[in-house]
Write a structure and sequence with these properties.
3-stranded antiparallel sheet; 21 helices; Butyryl-CoA Dehydrogenase, subunit A, domain 2; alpha+beta; binds flavin-adenine dinucleotide; globular; 553 residues; 11% strand
């Protein structure tokens, strides 16, 4: 049972009127919810630094995606802000007070890396922290394009500390990018020299109050610096060292997507089992789940969800394995996030569409989770950005994908073939102008990581004992992503591919309702469309307009 199973039933999480509240009210509720979840988990520094079982359980808790603003606030708080602070805390007693306040969510902990002009190329950020003769620093935003972009730094009643990444300037020399601990406000107004502009709602997603943050020659004490003053030998290496918590963040984001999948499958399936239409030929009612256009997407989504949960568990085990290098962990996290997000983004829309107009309403969770997941796909390792980085490394043999346990199985053959094909493209174009090989390769980078991810997920599912019919359906559901390859290399014609998908889904259809408990998600589903009772209760609480009194005759 999840640690938040009682909390999730409390009015703080069950109040269905929240959708209609003004934006700022909603942001305050996001913070209140985040604090309540933090209290339940009571995480320690060690949990966060060493990715303990408890920390993993926290990331797998569906409450983080049931309200995506909670997931956003808490993953920034613990993973990015606290994880970075704790990394530098050894021999820094001055950091202990901040660490314990961030840990208890007594203050909000932010992580300001991205700037308006520098996102994926954050290595080129322009905020400066200039060393003064007395050991202090002056933190400065040189122009509006260097404003910190996205982290929710606006005051919402709770004080806020942030790690601000800035270019360390020593005697007019650039010493690379470092993190600086900066108090931004005490809950009401920004501290002197710091300006925050609240960005408008993203639209469709749960609100956290994304902001722009500017520094106008703000003095920082010498202890604000995380790390040393030296000019690094390898500026790039130093940058990635300093932002290393983003690697764990990439894994965390993938884990949040697993909860999104579980919720979506539960809602779509429950609705489809319950909703009936009259059969055109004999007028007998039938559930919409009985149409292949309904049960194929539902069952393939369930199969993918269960296989990806096994994949997630396998990723966690590798992450806490000390024998696995940081570089390899980063590759694994990128493969995991890219693969799971590809399907999550598709499934949320597909299942939403299969619920008709109901799928469009925030109250039914699918559309709002989709909007939240779109954000998560970009944050802490943008899926295209990390795909490009690691696919090119794979093609250049700079990193090695995990060895295949079943190299003769279909997904391993597909993965091997995709990589070999692109290695050939790489070799044959490496003498040509860079732009030509770049143009050829970049569009296929996501496909490379997904091919690796599908094979790894398949192997994890076998290792974790996922029932074979679900694994078989998972495999068949992937044919449509690259039908020509399966036709050319696996003697599976287009029609054979379609029939295999239909056969495998139809075999599982009688068990559709029995698969729901495997998702272990019911308590986190608030969508009223999952049952008639819930729908009736929901409608009875909707505001209704009084009838106009008829004038007396
Ligand atoms: C929900 C959410 C929360 C966030 N929270 C934080 C936070 O707490 N702290 C923080 O610092 N930041 C945060 N961010 C910002 C996030 O880290 C950036 O959005 C992300 O790094 C991408 O940067 P960008 O949005 O500027 O996109 P850009 O860098 O402008 O990229 C946009 C697109 O350009 C293309 N592109 C860019 N570079 C390349 C390239 N080299 N090769 C090929 N194509 C390229 C890609 O299509 C890419 O998707 C958050 C973002 C989101 C969505």
């Amino acid at each position: 049972m999840q640690k938040t199973s009682s909390l999730v039933q409390s009015p703080l999480f069950q109040d269905s009127g929240i959708e209609g509240l003004p934006f700022l009210e909603r942001v305050k509720i996001s913070y209140a919810r985040a604090k309540a979840v933090a209290n339940v988990y009571n995480l320690t520094v060690s949990d966060i630094l060493h990715l303990s079982r408890r920390y993993w359980e926290f990331h797998n808790d569906p409450i983080l995606i049931m309200d995506g603003s909670v997931g956003t606030l808490l993953t920034i708080q613990y993973n990015l802000c606290l994880g970075t602070l704790a990394h530098f805390a050894e021999n820094r007693p001055d950091l202990q007070r901040i660490i314990s306040e961030v840990l208890n969510f007594d203050i909000s902990g932010q992580y300001c890396l991205t700037e308006v002009n520098h996102g994926l190329d954050a290595i080129n950020i322009e905020t400066t922290a200039t060393l003064q003769s007395n050991g202090e620093f002056i933190l400065h935003t040189p122009h509006s394009g260097a404003a910190k972009y996205m982290p929710p730094t606006a005051p919402f009643g709770i004080p806020c500390v942030a790690i601000i990444f800035a270019r360390l300037m020593v005697a007019e020399e650039d010493h690379g990018i470092r993190g600086f601990v900066v108090m931004l406000h005490h809950g009401v107004s920004m501290l002197p020299g710091i300006t925050c502009k609240l960005l408008p709602p993203r639209g469709g997603s749960r609100p956290v109050g994304h902001s722009l943050t500017y520094f106008n020659r703000v003095y920082l004490p010498s202890g604000a610096l995380l790390g040393d003053l030296e000019r690094p030998k390898d500026v790039r290496e130093c940058f990635f060292q300093n932002i290393h918590r983003v690697i764990t963040g990439t894994l965390s984001m993938g884990t949040l997507a697993l909860s999104a999948l579980r919720i979506a499958c539960y809602i779509g399936t429950s609705y489809s089992l319950e909703r009936q239409v009259l059969n055109g030929s004999n007028g007998v009612p039938r559930p919409i789940s009985s149409f292949s256009t309904q049960y194929i997407p539902l069952l393939t989504s369930i199969a993918q969800t269960i296989v990806f949960r096994a994949f997630g568990e396998d990723m966690y085990e590798q992450f806490v394995n000390r024998d696995v290098s940081i570089a390899q962990k980063h590759l694994l996290a990128a493969v995991f996030k890219t693969t799971v997000f590809r399907h999550t983004l598709d499934i949320l829309v597909d299942i939403g569409d299969r619920c008709g107009a109901q799928g469009l309403f925030e109250i039914n969770q699918l559309s709002v989770i989709h909007a939240d997941i779109r954000g998560a796909a970009i944050a802490e390792g943008d899926i295209l950005g990390i795909s490009i980085r690691f696919a090119i490394d794979i093609l250049r043999n700079r990193v090695r994908v995990p060895e295949a346990a079943y190299p003769d199985d279909l997904l391993a053959r597909h993965e091997h073939s995709i990589i070999q094909e692109l290695k050939e493209v790489w070799r044959s174009t490496s003498n040509q102008r860079n732009t030509h090989s770049e143009g050829l390769l970049l569009p296929h980078c996501r496909g490379v990581l997904e091919a690796v991810g599908h094979r790894c997920a398949y192997e994890a599912a076998i290792a974790k004992g996922v029932p074979r019919p679900l694994i078989n359906l998972f495999v068949a559901s992937l044919f449509q992503l690259d039908p020509a390859w399966y036709s050319e290399n696996a003697e599976l014609s287009r029609w054979r591919q379609k029939n295999l998908l239909l056969e495998r889904a139809t075999e599982l259809y009688p068990d559709l309702a029995q698969l729901l408990p495997l998702l272990e998600i019911e308590s986190y589903v608030t969508a009223p469309i999952v049952s008639k009772n819930r729908w009736n209760k929901y409608v009875s609480n909707l505001p209704s307009y009084p009838t106009e009194q008829l004038a007396k005759l």
